[in-house]
Structures are given as C-alpha cells and as structure tokens.
C-alpha cells in the first residue's frame, strides 16, 4: 500500500491494542522509515475515536518538541482514512523489556548507562513542559548501535495543551506508577523520575519493584509498602535507585 502517495508500507514491526507499526519506504527521499497506524477497535463510538485521534496527534507534537538523541524523530503526520498516521525514524533494535527477557538482566554498569540516557531525554521533555507518564522497559528501545531511545509519548501530559483534561483515569503501567500518581495527586517531573528508578531496578533484577499480580494490589503496594532491596544492583546503583 502507498500512503499519501509517498510512503510504501512493508512488513509489520509490531501491533498493539490501538495501532500497528509498519516498516515503510519514503519513496520521495529514498529512506526507510517507521509508520505508526492508528487502528480503531470495532466496539468504540465516535467520541472515543476522536479521543484516540487527539491522543495520537498529541504524541506526535510532544515528540517533535523534544530535541534529544534519546527521542525518536517525527518526520511527518499523514491524514488518511480519516485517521492520522505518524511517520518517524526507524530504530533497528529491541525493547529493554525484550532484551532483559531474551538476553538476561543488565550489568549494573549497563543499567546505569541506560538510566542516564533516559534521564537525559526526560530532562529535555520536562524542559518543554512534557511529562511522559509511562516510563517502563517496554517503552525503551535499545538500538543495534547501542543508542537508547524512549518511545510511546501517547499518554504524555503536555503543559498548556487544552486537549488534556482531568478525567480521574489513571494511565500507565501500575508497576511503574509513582506513589503520588497512585494516590490521584497531580504529578510533576518527579513522577517520571520515580518510574525511571523502577525501570533501572527491573533492568538489573528482571522484574519491577512492585508486581502483586493485579493492578489494584500493585497500586496499593506502591502506596504503602517499602520496595524490596535489589540483589544485583551493587551498592552504588542501589543508592541511585533509592534516590529516584
């Protein structure tokens, strides 16, 4: 399929509940790109479709504002079939979650390197008034050249964006949600940093600091229980994890 008379869709790189990511070729510039397609579940109504379109466009705008090597570059947004398609840089590699699952946990040194890279892109995002709100291993890509990239700004909160409303709905992975967000308080940059601490913990331990089997039990533990000390972090990285 040729999208917008320019982007030739190829293999599917991944599928999620609300979208599909394709490998594609930009036939105008002759380069390989990734194209994120928004897909609507058959059960949703028109209001929900509009909400998902708004979320997709917000993600593209948020990423475009971040000037950092740890963020994917957005090249274009195409409106076709009454929905947006995001054209972006193709990152060859695997997610941190897949890397840990397939190759084993990271060494403290490598986990620290990944953590510093994510810290750098989060600082760039925060300077632009953007909170990621879903920092977790599956949203971090480790490129084949070693580059570390934070992805999926789909639920990011952008300061001053009128499309952001307070619905009371908690978004993000329960195992990586900060205590203040679990309590329903308004988050700040510190909430992303807390999630980063959980991500580093998972990178060296192979599992998140809190995982009780259900969302409610996990969120309750986040709010009320101390985290179990990491066994594989070493003394220096353990201090960093607890500091975050």
Please, could you describe this protein's structure?
With 244 residues, the chain is an alpha+beta fold. It has two domains: 2-89, Phosphorylase Kinase, domain 1, CATH 3.30.200; 93-243, Transferase(Phosphotransferase) domain 1 (Transferase(Phosphotransferase), domain 1). Helices cover 36% and strands 23% of the residues. It is built from seven helices and eleven strands. The chain has helices spanning 46-65, 96-103, 108-127, 179-182, 189-205, 215-224, 234-243, and strands at residues 2-3, 7-15, 19-26, 31-38, 74-80, 83-89, 93-95, 130-131, 140-143, 148-150, 157-158. A six-stranded antiparallel sheet has the order 1-2-3-4-6-5, with helices on one face. A three-stranded antiparallel sheet has the order 7-9-10. A two-stranded antiparallel sheet has the order 8-11. A hairpin with a 3-residue loop joins β1 and β2. α5 runs antiparallel to α7. The longest helix has 20 residues, at 46-65. The radius of gyration is 18 Å and the shape is globular. The relative contact order is 0.12. The model is unreliable at 162-169 (pLDDT under 50).
Short structural summary:
By secondary structure, this protein is α+β, with helices and mostly antiparallel strands. It folds into 2 domains: about 1-90, Phosphorylase Kinase, domain 1 (2-Layer Sandwich); about 95-244, Transferase(Phosphotransferase) domain 1 (Transferase(Phosphotransferase), domain 1).
């Amino acid at each position: 399929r040729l999208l917008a008379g320019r982007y030739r869709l190829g293999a599917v790189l991944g599928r999620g509940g609300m979208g599909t990511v394709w490998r594609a070729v930009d036939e105008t510039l002759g380069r390989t790109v990734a194209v994120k397609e928004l897909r609507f579940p058959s059960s949703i109504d028109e209001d929900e479709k509009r909400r998902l379109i708004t979320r997709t466009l917000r993600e593209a705008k948020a990423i475009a504002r971040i000037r950092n090597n740890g963020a994917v570059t957005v090249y274009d947004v195409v409106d076709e079939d009454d929905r947006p398609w995001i054209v972006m840089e193709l990152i060859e590699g695997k997610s941190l979650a897949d890397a840990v699952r397939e190759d084993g946990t990271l060494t403290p040194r490598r986990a620290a390197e990944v953590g510093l890279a994510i810290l750098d892109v989060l600082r760039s995002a925060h300077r632009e008034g953007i909170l990621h709100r879903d920092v977790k291993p599956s949203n971090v890509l480790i490129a084949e050249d070693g580059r570390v990239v934070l992805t999926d700004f789909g639920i990011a909160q952008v300061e001053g964006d009128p499309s952001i409303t307070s619905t009371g709905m908690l978004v993000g992975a329960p195992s990586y949600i900060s205590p203040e967000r679990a309590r329903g308080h308004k988050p700040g940059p510190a909430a992303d940093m807390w999630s980063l601490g959980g991500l580093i913990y998972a990178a060296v331990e192979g599992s998140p600091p809190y995982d009780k089997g259900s969302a409610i039990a996990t969120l309750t533990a986040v709010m009320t229980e101390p985290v179990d000390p990491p066994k594989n972090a070493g003394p220096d990285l353990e201090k960093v994890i607890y500091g975050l």
